[in-house]
Fold PRD domain-containing protein.
Amino acid sequence: MLVSKVLNNNVIIADDPHYGEVVVIGKGIGFGRSEKDSIESEAAEKMFILRSRREQEQYKQLLPQVDENLIEVMNEAIQTIGTRIASPLNEHIHVALTDHIAFALKRTEKGITFQNPFLYETKEIYPEEYELAQYVVNLIEERLGVALGPDEVGFVALHIHSAITNRPITEVRGHSELIADLVDLIEENLDGGLNRSSLDYSRLLTHLRFAIERVCRGEEVRSTDRLAELLGREYPEMYSLAWKLTKVMEKRLGLPVYKAESSYLTVHLQRLAEKDNL
């Protein structure tokens, strides 16, 4: 490919024989480059190439607003994330995560902090993404000297999950908020509250995550009416609470929730309600 324009030391515009105009991102890729310089394909394989026209334009608009040192750190972070996961990352992570971190750095420098209300849930539900997010935040502190704090790790984890699953960050964040609200509702209805360090609590979070994903996919969950009747009779309070939770899910997601979800939720809730687990 041939260099069309050098945007900074780490980003260039190039003409690719297969994809046309592309944004090529890589540490030092623009240093000493001039228009019409050739870039070997072997070198390009070690870089990120934004092929989507929409992502290209958004990234080019973002660049003048972001410090070049941050661009270099984010390129390295995203490249590392890409090597550690099995699936390809959505290209939008270059725009979304870089923009998010740039804003977080400005807030931190001004002493403005945002509390993450669903940090614990994020860590439990998305452990791989959380670990990668911790790496990103640590790298930023190491290279730029700014400690973003643990709350920010949770926000970064959601961006990483969004890129891995090809789901908009608004949807990912909405699901996390929904889970946090469901947990609050559960806690309000349990006399002893919730033991958030228990295995049963971790199981509940995992169940809620996959229940929401099943609802969004329209995947039917089957159970017998007899099971529902049995659970309703044996554990009336938890069955009623499970029913309330599914109604909240229906309202927030705008999608129907199969009746069987109430039955399976009842089992998890009953485990949490038992005194020896609190």
In short: The longest helix spans residues 169-189.
